[in-house]
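[Target chain]
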Amino acid sequence: MIIDLPATTTSQVNRKLVELRDQGGAVALGRVLTLVIVTDDGEQTEAAVDAANEASREHPCRVIVVARGPRKAAARLDAQIRVGGDAGASEVVVLRLYGPLADEGASCVVPLLLPDAPVVAWWPGNAPAAPAEDPIGQLATRRITDAAAEKNPIKALDIRRTSYAEGDTDLAWTRLTTWRALLAAALDLPPFEKVTAATVTGGADSPSTDLLAGWLAAYLDIPVSRRKTPAGEGMHSVVLERKSGAVELVRPDGSVGTLTQPGQPPRRVALQRRENQDCLIEEMRRLDPDEVYDATLRALPKVKQARTVSKPAERVPAKAGGAKAAAAGKAAVTAEAPAEGTAEEPAGEPAKAGPKAEPRKSAKADGKATAKSDGKGAASTSGKGAGRGKSAPKSAKRSGKKSSGAQR
């Protein structure tokens, strides 16, 4: 059931809620908390309500949606109450605030809070720089943000780090629960060796990748490198270096991962990207501060930012180095050919006795010239060093014979 209350007040909304409760038999004691969703009015509003409805099936609650409309409009409050099948296991109150009222969300929320029940605030899109200092954030026990939903996720995560307060958390951190569980279980299997280094690879705009690297740096106290892939790819892989071999968890397609470790056969594991409702359900299970998330944020500066790679499986630097070495070797062989011709040139021959000596074109030609063991081949080689089309002087011929004898 959906009831619209245009151009209304919070008192009228509260009165209507009591009336519906009396008619439907629903009591406030069935709600365990109040979930306040702060967002801009639009498509994101309905997506957040759907996620909250799914979460309410595990955590029955009252959902209050603060949908901020255009601030240039006249001050007005349009309310909508959803109960029954349109609200999951909760009751949903959507408050659309226009004009100056859009910045007064806290004053509109307070009259509708459940008495003696904790408050959880969720910003599914852009969140304030310091959620704990926001008027709605000050009402909440837990404050949930989503750095991945902001325009610059990495910058948003850095802001979360500097403004962290007890009770803050982020859905980018919640999406790592499965990754962290698999890595922790892998280290519980033999051989029980210390991890010496780690490499975490993921999209350049993935805050979850940064958080996983920070978690490893905080609790393993090892050097951690964060490698970047093109934006939009999310988490890709984690490599933990140990003496007996590396532990690798790779997810190339965003749904199924492969866990590889020494002494164990490769295992395929489910690593689907978690939906917002699943992350929201997990965060609503606890209302105390998340110390692990706090330690991870503080360890982010320890992570070494490595280069950006287009495809993590390719070894581009090794191929490039081999090509350069081959080119350098070929140039060295070509450069040695003129020097050999010059060394065989007779000492007494003038510089203008003929055209310039032609360097051998390849190492293959040098091999053929050297393979000839008769004196005639050696003398002809000396003749080419003197010039073409002219007979060499007698001294040069005698010198050539001596050279031929020396080569024998």
